[in-house]
Amino acid sequence: MPQPHIYNLEEFTEQNQIHSIFGSAVACFTAGRELLNRITLPGAMPSFFTIILMIDGREEYTINNNKVELEMHDLFIKLPYTPLNFKDCSNEVESVHLLVEKNFFDELARQNEQLQTATPLDIFDTIPVFHLSEAKVAEFYDLFHNIQKTISQPHLYKQELVRYQLSFCQLLLAELISGHEVNTHDLKHKDDILKIFLHLATRHFRKERQLQFYAERLNITSTYLSRIVKELTGNTVLGYLSSFLYNEICIQLKTTDKTMSEIAEELNFNDQSAFTNFFRSKAGMSPLSYRKKSNVR
Length: 297
Fold this sequence. Notes:
single chain
């Protein structure tokens, strides 16, 4: 009896014309009925993790001769080297597929001792299907969407982004499996996130002070960005942006003759009143009083 063919991720994506791939380690794509039928590989044994998030409809697979039915809001995790066969799906089906080569997945997990024991590497005695709450679906969907975006678009920090997005995915899976929050010690990836955030913040705080703006440019969720910044610094994203803004106003008041209205407009306040209220909350005095006290021209 012939042995099932083992597909690595690069071979799998090339054969099935899936272009959303990073190197030969990570692929992420959204699938409907047409694509699911097209990529069917009976008897194949992928060498990569397969994580499927069901957005709508129904999908049916067999894995080790066991039937797996996935419905809306299910998350399915298949380990590498396990035969997986697609059987059928509903007409309106939509799902997001994250494929990660085992070596890459294991490398990221090894960087965090606590995470190694919580990720789906050796703990499944049954077929791992989780039915998620709407909040968890949204969290995974945002993460997978960001991974797709990182892979498909040019980005100065693409390699770093992909690595810590996958690390965050492992963290979410660990929390899902264990049932409680996992505090990782993966400081390298967290430091990368913090450094890139601070770099972006110093460039854009004059115009952009919404959490979502920075999360989108980091291609991570706003929840994850908030969590990392708070964990590593004790400060918040808003706290950093407010500090940068306050320092900039102080510099402007001390070193320029710009009017309050001009500074407010330059720093993207809705109006001069909002500008004055913000500065007063930080300095305990009005911008005009601060300028006079500083003996600026």
